[in-house]
């Protein structure tokens, strides 16, 4: 039995709890949150996709408010780090140093320096560290990567990605809206698409972004063009300045030589391949969502089972680096080179 702990029991902590419950051979034995009222507040957590309204059995695990005590007493094999972003490096490093495998939420850290510290400790400890870039595992996104890599539809000539949300004001002390703790809309939200762009096409040669500030004065909406040597036209747009009734959209259009691949969470059918000849169709995709599938992958890796390499720590770090370049580009209003 893999003994699992969860550090930070807000929206994503509860999501990880739900996912871990679905993994055979694993059990959440401990949860830690600094919030003394976590049991009551759990009923209020919200996020962008779906919800975690599945009842949480607080009697089925030990509840801690002190991470060191949880690490010392709970005999964990693995821990989900689902804390506010600015805490990812220190807590991941502490867990790795204590001999515990770590599944840490994205973004890896607020900056490249934090990512490098995490990579160094993962290497030193020999324990597994995986960053929650769930879009790589999201069934339609994973299928799209397979379709592109198969070469069946020729090359990608253009691609555009969107991730648009109402303003995330739900965090307990509003840490998400504090750019110093979350990295703002570009690092917290838009990085999902930056990472997927990197997954599909590698690190761009340069980026050129424009950004708009929200009511608090921070970057709330970003549009980026990613430059590649073959001149394909790749853009991604991410922002959290949409009005509440808009809710959430994640979508893409990928234009290939012999097909167009479309996805839009708000549309029915969400996922379509339009081939050069014949009708559009919806390919079969894996069951579940990206959160569950990434945790299933992590569980396989820590159990020593063979698993395809979907994401590496260096790639998670590079996604933070690309977003840093995007923010710099938006600020300076000029193209920023990454090569
Ligand atoms: N993969 C995704 O789709 C996705 C979606 C949302 C959030 N996230 C990421 O997940 C992370 C958490 O986001 P969230 O929306 O769950 O935030 P949240 O505010 O809902 O939850 C954070 C929890 O951590 C607790 N906490 C804060 N400081 C603590 C400390 N020192 N010790 C113990 N507990 C502490 C808080 O009390 C809170 O319960 C962020 O890095 C965010 O970017 C990822």
Describe the structure.
By secondary structure, the chain is an alpha/beta fold. The chain folds into 2 domains: 132 residues, NAD(P)-binding Rossmann-like Domain (Rossmann fold); 179 residues, Dihydrodipicolinate Reductase, domain 2, CATH 3.30.360. It is 33% helix and 26% strand. It has 10 helices and 14 strands. Strands 13-12-11-7-10-9-8-14 form an 8-stranded mixed sheet. A 6-stranded parallel sheet has the order 3-2-1-4-5-6, sandwiched between helices. A hairpin with a 5-residue loop joins strand 9 and strand 10. Helix 1 crosses helix 9. The protein is globular and about 60 Å long. The mean pLDDT is 95.
**Main sheet: which strands, in order across?**
13-12-11-7-10-9-8-14
Any idea what the CATH superfamily of the largest domain is called?
A: Dihydrodipicolinate Reductase, domain 2
Estimate the helix proportion, in percent.
25-40%
Strand content: 25-35%
Distinct ligands, ions and cofactors found in the model: nicotinamide-adenine-dinucleotide
Rounded to an integer in angstroms, the radius of gyration calculated over CA atoms is: 20 Å
Q: Order of helices and strands, N to C?
A: EHEHEHEHEHEHEHHEEEEEEHHE
Give the overall average pLDDT.
Answer: 95
Number of strands: 14
Total separate domains: 2
What's the CATH first level of the largest domain? Alpha Beta
Low-confidence region ranges: none
Structural class, by secondary structure, is alpha/beta
- In CATH, the architecture of the largest domain is 2-Layer Sandwich
End-to-end separation in angstroms reads: 45 Å
Q: What would the CATH topology of the largest domain be?
A: Dihydrodipicolinate Reductase, domain 2
Q: Main sheet?
A: 8 strands, mixed
- Coarse morphology: globular
Number of separate helices: 10
